[in-house]
Amino acid sequence: MKAARWTAVVLMAALAASPARGGDFYVGALGGLATLSADGRSILAGSASQVSLYKPYNGPALNIFAGWDFSEYASLQANYIWNGNDLDLVSTAYGPSGATDYQQARNSHQSSAIADLLVYMRKRDSRVRPYLSGGAGLVYLRSSEEALNVVTGSPALPPEEFSATHLGLRVAVGIDVRLGDGLSFRYSFSETISPNAISSELSPPGTRGLKNFQNLFGLVKHF
Fold first, then answer.
1. How many domains does the chain divide into?
2. CA 70 to CA 160: how far, in whole Å?
3. What is the pLDDT of residues 83-104, one digit of tens each?
4. 21-63: per-residue pLDDT in tens?
């Protein structure tokens, strides 16, 4: 509750700050690395047991955005975010009818449309401007099978291709460093949280949400 109150105070201060100077807009692009959270589940019983998990690999990420500096200390920003990550899915089960298992290699791609509010620690004419941001939007995930490496028995396999669209919440910290002529360097570390379309295809299904962590570097152009 204390964190929520402090966040509300910061946002109110930003909105009450000096108005924008005639509409200061910007565009930019960032690239970097995306890391997905893993998940797994185990159900152990005397006569039957099941274990499943998926392992994600780091992959490329891209963030294209446009924003409006409506205040000395705050901006509204629209983002298109893409990342691709390979996955390994594993499941094993043992019961009265025998044992089954599989190991499946997959790819996954996420495309997101996110609206953010950025709150800066310093004024717009500062050379170095750290910021915090938060926002929400739609996250689309698609995954396709690449190889079925191990199969024993007749396990319940994930479909060759599946997709899902969910609401995602995104928070980020970053810093803008002014280079001159309206151009700035930006570093951003973000986390996007959404329901987990990968976990729901495990057998047994996982229970954790999906977290997408991104380290991004790039340029911002003000005009």
1. 1
2. 46
3. 999 999 999 998 877 889 999 9
4. 545 899 999 999 999 999 999 988 877 899 999 999 999 999 9
Beta bridge partners of 96: none
CATH number of the CATH domain containing 29: 2.40.160.20
d(CA 11, CA 137): 19
Structural domain that includes position 134: 2-222
Three-state secondary structure call for residue 209: coil
Concatenating the DSSP letter of every residue in 170-201 gives EEEEEEEEEEETTEEEEEEEEEEEE--TTGGG
CB-CB contact of 22 with 70 (8 Å): no
Question: What is the spatial distance between Cα 167 and Cα 194, in angstroms, rounded to a whole number?
Answer: 6
pTM for the model stands at 0.86
